Each structure stands twice: as structure tokens, then as C-alpha cells.
Task: inverse folding
């Protein structure tokens, strides 16, 4: 049989478990969605900020070169005049050089600036200028122009700065390279100068690419994340683990990437291990699981306590009914709630209080009945096993000739005789339990003071007669009685004492045979 407690706890636990799964699942799903989106937004914001920082560094180079380009194109009116008039060309070149110095001085990342005229157009005099510095912290110094005629036009390391933008016919960001002429790892922005379709030359500026590398490497991208740069074809411009120009790079599956396009066509890519990116999400999920488990456990404890509070009175009621079914009416209910079960328990208590009157009380005389007698006998036999010094006596009584009275004068007279006998016995033995165990049979069990005075009380009982008056007739009937005294070590049970008392009562009854009179 499944107990009510088990049913209640099981049902409530199932409800709490399902609710916890539902709420926890929805919470985890929502947390995962929000935190993943926030992480992606934060990563994109970080990438955009780095892109802006690099754009700012390279933008200063571009702006400086574009400004110088505008001055050059606006100053050179006629290419042929500029090319043929050496003095005019040298004068303008000197002005260009001074202006470009001022511009480059204000461009922090610049390591060189230059103007190179078209050697096919100009073969004598000023062919341009080149100013450079060995490091970002050094001062600019003039260097001799590279003789581009000594190199192949596809030699990127030596003359790529000139031929690549000329072939592109547009402003060009060169891929980072080590300038063999200057022994500097740099990135160049070069603009070809065309006047009415004729190539005048190029103007350009080089930036120390290590500045860009330092900015990329110094990015704080979570714990194990990093950034790198690709070109328009997604070839590597800079990556801490790959060489320049690497094509077909595939990010590891355990990494997440975002990118942002720079103004020069490059891309800043930020890549982060997913475990780092999702660390906050995982932490929130663990916290949520912990909270759900904690709240679920808390509700389980509360449910268990509430269930115990509800069920404990029922358990007491069940135990009480089991004891009552065995004849033990000495039960108490201590757990009574202020609810329907409490009302049931109170009703049971009221019933229990009145139950001995129904079970242990003789309806005619008000004395204790046979059930009460058997209950006390059981208790005495248990005490006989425990108490070596136990002392008690048993007295049995019988109304003499009650059957004849009933037959001759009616049961009403007989009943009154029984009631009168009960009162008389209780009057004499007012400190001992008196039982009516049969129609006209009584038993008294003596202990304590009545036991000490057993002989005196028995003598008083012997001289007493039962007198009643009915319809002007007075009936006088003696009580037959006998006494048995418990002898420790001899009597194995109560019945041995009872039999001696009963035998004495029978003998006394024989002596009183036919002794009753009507006055």
C-alpha cells in the first residue's frame, strides 16, 4: 500500500520537477540567446574600434599624401614646360620638399616621404626627393633617390612602390614589405600623378608597419583571442601564425570571428575561442541551474515539512485506531492542525473520550464491564513479570438466588437487585476497581490500602445483605463471595488467583443456598 505521504510528496515533487525543468529550460534558452547576442555585439564593437584605430593611423598617411598630391597637380600647369624647364622644376621641387617635410613631420607613423618624377619624361636635373628616418622616433634625413632603371619593374621590394600604383593608375596601398633600400618593414601609400593623361610621377609616404603590428598584438581580446588583417581577397596581410599572402586560411571550428572593412580595403578580423566568448553565458547557465536546483530543493523541503504537518495527524489517527483495535484505549493525539484534518482529529478525540463508556462501562450498573476487566487482567499479568513485590487480591461476588427472583418477581426486580448490589460493593470497596463480569457476577481487585484491609473489608461484605423495596415489598438477599490472594513465585498467572477466589465464592454460595426473604 502506498501511503498518503508518499503520494503527496511524489505528486508535489513531480510538479516541482516539471516546473523547474520548464522554467530552467526557458531561462537557459533565453540566457543563451541574449548572452550570445551580447557577446557577438561586444566582439563586433571591439573589432570596429580596432578598425577605427587602424584607419586613424593609416588615414593620416593617406590624408598627407592626398594633400601633397593636390598641391603638386595644382602647381604643375604644363607637363612639357615642367619637364623641359629645369630651373622652374627645381624651384617647384624645392617648395614641394619643404611643404612635404612639414606634412610628414606632423604624421606620427610616417618613416619616409617621397616624390619621384617619371624618368621617361625627365632625364636631367631634379627627379624628385626622398626623405626617411631609420625608426619612428628618429629625425627625417634626405636620401639619394633609388635608380629605378637598375631594377625590374616587378621587383616589389626595390621598386614596387613606383611601378605598382603606376600600373594600377590609381592610389594604391602597398602590401607590407621590407624595403631593401631602407631596411624597414613598411606599408606604403602611393598616388600616381597624371596631368592631362600624362604621367608626371608618383607621390607617396611610407608608414612603419610595426606600429600596426603592435596595435594588433596589443589588443585585449578576451583571454586567448587575437586579431589579424586580410586584404580584399582575404589573403593574409598580418597574422601572428601565418606569413604574408597566405591564401585559403580557414578558422578553427572552436573559434568565432567577426570582421570590419577598413577604408583602404583591408579587413580587420578578430577571432576568439568560443569557450572564452561563451564563458559568461556558461557562468550564467550554471548560476541558473544552481538557482533552479536550490529553489527546487527548497520547495521540496518545504513540501516535505508541509506534507508531514498534514500527514502526521493522520498517522497518529491510524496508530490510535490500531491500538484501540487491540483493546488499548489509552491513546493521545498530540498533532492537531487547524484544518479539516484537525477537525477530524478533534472529533476522533471526542469519540475516544466517550468510547470507554461504551466499551468498558456496564450500562445497567455504571460499573466497569468485562472488557475493562480483561484489560486490567492483562496489565496485572504484565506487572507480575516485572514486579517481584507485587501484591494484590481478587474478590468474586454473586447475588444469591437471582435467577429465582427473576422468575418469580420479574426481571425488573432482578435488575434493581443487581444495581443495589453494585452500589453496596462500591460502598465497601471505594478504593478498588469493581467489575460486573456476568449477569450477577462481580469482581473486585484489591491493591494498596484495600489490600492491606482485605480481611476487614471482606468481613464487612459478609455481614451485609442487599435490601430493596418494590411495590411495598422489601427484598433482602445476601451476596456470596470469595477471595484469592496472589502468591508471588507460586501463581503463574492471574487465573490461578481468580480460581481460588471463585472456588471460595462457590463454597460460600452453597452455604447461602435459598437464603433470601421477602418482608
Result:
Amino acid at each position: 500500500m502506498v501511503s498518503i505521504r508518499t503520494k503527496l510528496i511524489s505528486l508535489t515533487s513531480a510538479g516541482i520537477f516539471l516546473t523547474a525543468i520548464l522554467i530552467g529550460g526557458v531561462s537557459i534558452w533565453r540566457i543563451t540567446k541574449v548572452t550570445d547576442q551580447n557577446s557577438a555585439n561586444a566582439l563586433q564593437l571591439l573589432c570596429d574600434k580596432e578598425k577605427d584605430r587602424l584607419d586613424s593611423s593609416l588615414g593620416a598617411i593617406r590624408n598627407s599624401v592626398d594633400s601633397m598630391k593636390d598641391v603638386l597637380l595644382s602647381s604643375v600647369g604644363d607637363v612639357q614646360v615642367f619637364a623641359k624647364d629645369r630651373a622652374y622644376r627645381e624651384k617647384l621641387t624645392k617648395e614641394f620638399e619643404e611643404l612635404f617635410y612639414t606634412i610628414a613631420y606632423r604624421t606620427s607613423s610616417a618613416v619616409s616621404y617621397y616624390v619621384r618624377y617619371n624618368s621617361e619624361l625627365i632625364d636631367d636635373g631634379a627627379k624628385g626627393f626622398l626623405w626617411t628616418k631609420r625608426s619612428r622616433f628618429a629625425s627625417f634625413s634626405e636620401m639619394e633617390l633609388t635608380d629605378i632603371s637598375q631594377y625590374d619593374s616587378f621587383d616589389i621590394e626595390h621598386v614596387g612602390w613606383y611601378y605598382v600604383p603606376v600600373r594600377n593608375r590609381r592610389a594604391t596601398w602597398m602590401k607590407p614589405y621590407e624595403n631593401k633600400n631602407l631596411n624597414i618593414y613598411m606599408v606604403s601609400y602611393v598616388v600616381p600623378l597624371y596631368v592631362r593623361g600624362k604621367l608626371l610621377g608618383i607621390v607617396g609616404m611610407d608608414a612603419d608597419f610595426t606600429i600596426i603590428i603592435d596595435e594588433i598584438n596589443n589588443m585585449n581580446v578576451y583571454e586567448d583571442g587575437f586579431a589579424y588583417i586580410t586584404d580584399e581577397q582575404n589573403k593574409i596581410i598580418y597574422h601572428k601564425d601565418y606569413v604574408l599572402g597566405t591564401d585559403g586560411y580557414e578558422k578553427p571550428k572552436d573559434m568565432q570571428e567577426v570582421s570590419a572593412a577598413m577604408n583602404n580595403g583591408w579587413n580587420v578580423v578578430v577571432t576568439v575561442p568560443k569557450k572564452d566568448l561563451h564563458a559568461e553565458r556558461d557562468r550564467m547557465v550554471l548560476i541558473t541551474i544552481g538557482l533552479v536546483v536550490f529553489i527546487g530543493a527548497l520547495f521540496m523541503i518545504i513540501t516535505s515539512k508541509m506534507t508531514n504537518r498534514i500527514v502526521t495527524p493522520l498517522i497518529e489517527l491510524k496508530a490510535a485506531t490500531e491500538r484501540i483495535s487491540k483493546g488499548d484505549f489509552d491513546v493521545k493525539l498530540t498533532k492537531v492542525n487547524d484544518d479539516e484534518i484537525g477537525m477530524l482529529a478533534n472529533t476522533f478525540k471526542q469519540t475516544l473520550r466517550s468510547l470507554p463508556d461504551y466499551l468498558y462501562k456496564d450500562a445497567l450498573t455504571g460499573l466497569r464491564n468485562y472488557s475493562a476487566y480483561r484489560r486490567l487482567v492483562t496489565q496485572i499479568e504484565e506487572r507480575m513479570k516485572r514486579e517481584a513485590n507485587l501484591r494484590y487480591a481478587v474478590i468474586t461476588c454473586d447475588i444469591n438466588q437471582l435467577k429465582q427472583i427473576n422468575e418469580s418477581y420479574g426481571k425488573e426486580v432482578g435488575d434493581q437487585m443487581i444495581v443495589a448490589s453494585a452500589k453496596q460493593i462500591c460502598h465497601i470497596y471505594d478504593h478498588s476497581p469493581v467489575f460486573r463480569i456476568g449477569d450477577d457476577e462481580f469482581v473486585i481487585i484489591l491493591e494498596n490500602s484495600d489490600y492491606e484491609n482485605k480481611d476487614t473489608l471482606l468481613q464487612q461484605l459478609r455481614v451485609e445483605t442487599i435490601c430493596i423495596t418494590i411495590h411495598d415489598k422489601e427484598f433482602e438477599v445476601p451476596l456470596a463471595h470469595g477471595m484469592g490472594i496472589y502468591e508471588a513465585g507460586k501463581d503463574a498467572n492471574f487465573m490461578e488467583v481468580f480460581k481460588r477466589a471463585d472456588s471460595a465464592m462457590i463454597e460460600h454460595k452453597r452455604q447461602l443456598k435459598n437464603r433470601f426473604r421477602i418482608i
User: Anything to note?
Assistant: The longest strand covers residues 473-485. The two ends are 68 Å apart (CA to CA). Residues 453 and 459 are 10 Å apart (CA to CA). Residues 4-75 form the longest helix (72 residues).
